[in-house]
Amino acid sequence: MPVLPHPHRPGRYAVMLVCLGNICRSPMADVVLRAKVAAAGLADRVEIGSSGTGSWHVGEPMDSRAAATLRAAGYDPSRHRAQHFEPDRRDGFDLVLAMDAANLADIGGHSERVHLFRDFDPIGTGDEVPDPYYGGGDGFQEVLAMVERTTDALVDALSESQHRPGSAAAESQRQSQRQSQRQSEAEADLS
Length: 191
What we know:
Helix content: 40-55%
Order of helices and strands: EHEHEHEHH
Radius of gyration: 19 Å
């Protein structure tokens, strides 16, 4: 599994998830990752977005089968509207994750900050997320299982990166510990 690149802005991390039309795979990953980031207490430090390399679905909601799969699993897909990936904005994200090799090629290929989504999957590292659009409901369940497993690993990596030496979160924690120690010493001196 790759190491997360350092953020462009200390204390903030921006993740973009990319698929073909932004109505199935990347929005499913977006909704799940947002929920897991919030549950981990990182929502104020991690920005998440999704987009598609094709523009034909811009402004549309998520595919109804993808939305139904998410709702059945307890997620809220209602806010999603498809967006087009803007290649000139690629460098503005700390991490861009493509769902398959064609998407990866469409956004300029692998780099330090650009990977396949499943490069972070502990089971299928480097594999693609299959496009369920032309299949049945089972394909969406399969994608959700991949997404949940991979987003768990991403959230773990994001949590660790917040406490990596030199990170803004780690520095803030050290300052808070020093302040508590000084306060304890001052109280001990008064006793």
